Amino acid sequence: MQPNHLVTAAALGLAIAASHASANTVLRASHQFPGGQGDVRDEMVQMMAKEVANADVGLEIEVYPGQSLFKAREQWGALARGRLDITALPLDYASGRHPEFSATLMPGLVRNHEHAQRLNDSEYMDMIKDVIQEGGARVLADAWLSGGFASSEQCITSPDTVDGQVFRAAGPAFEEMLEAAGASIASMPSSEIYTAMQTGVLDAANTSSMSFVSYRLYEQVDCLTQPGDYALWFMYEPILISEQVWQGLNEEQQTALMAAGEKAEAFFAEEAAAIDQQMVDVYEENGVEVVKMTEDDYNAWLEIARETSYKNFAENVPNGQAIIDAALAVE
Fold it and tell me: What distance in Å separates the CA atoms of residue 181 and residue 305, rounded to the nearest whole number?
């Protein structure tokens, strides 16, 4: 073959490859968590991107970690309007639009990781997912993260230990409970806790075990309350897809996404309990005191929560009491 024919053939090959690449539907996935640093939520999304690419169904997922595409609290609105395709989202961040979502961060509602798995297949979760879908999204993968408390002032155990501290809570239910115990509240996503503590805006915070590690909060606190046997804090942080986007995909692409979501969910379930111990190890290595709540501490918090968070949710949220009852019915 003559040299000019070689050039022409190479150019044609590149053109065909480019045409094939451009034929792919590209979905943008956003989340607030650090990328490429071992955060399980980022790893779930990255795993889905890899699985979808391997499925060869003309679909590609581009991942934008660390709020590089949308700010944490902007993601739900963008998803519902079809401006964002996929997100890994702490669902209670959208409770301002859908107050039912506060039932996914209700003090003491989830007892442990095994209980969280059972909740995923319950009437309670069906009710939450109905609201998600009516709001313009659908769930690709479930994830419940346990969490704890940390403070630069004193260890958080019984309710009296939060009195006078400025606290970040992840959602309205915890804010109501903490306020009733004497804390002041400063609302913000977990990605802003470090700076708020560094600048003296916050004394204390609760967030997931994963976020306590990923955001290096051990650099700002003196004491960590781990979940232990009495985990007061569990938060639902699913991977969601815009319903508008979903309806625009063909059946093969939808099937590939659901299969990728199932694999990511299974991966998370295997990692979930280990994340709590990872947090404890990292904090102890960095000289932070680590404590646990006793059963009496836990019950004292639940008593406050029932008179504040649970009561307000049941009275003020559409179908609130039914959602709580459905969750409590899961053994």
Answer: 10
The answer to whether 31 and 61 have CB atoms below 8 angstroms apart is no
Of 175, 157, 158, the closest CA to residue 166 belongs to: 175
Task: Report residues of the chain scoring pLDDT below 70.
Answer: 1-22
Reading the block at residue 141, the tokens are 């993968």
What are 179-189's pLDDT values in tens digits? 999 999 999 99
Q: Which of 168, 226, 222, 216 is nearest to 196 (CA)?
A: 168
What's the token pair of residue 21? 């690449």
> Domains plus CATH for the chain?
16-328 (3.40.190.170)
- Give 123's contacts (C-beta < 8 A, 6+ positions apart): 326, 329
Residue 274 corresponds to which tokens in the numbers above? Answer: 């280990």
d(CA 109, CA 97): 22
Cα separation, 135 vs 238, in Å, equals 15
Position 229, amino acid: D
Q: Is residue 152 within 8 Å of 204, Cβ to Cβ?
A: yes
Structure tokens at 219: 């650099």
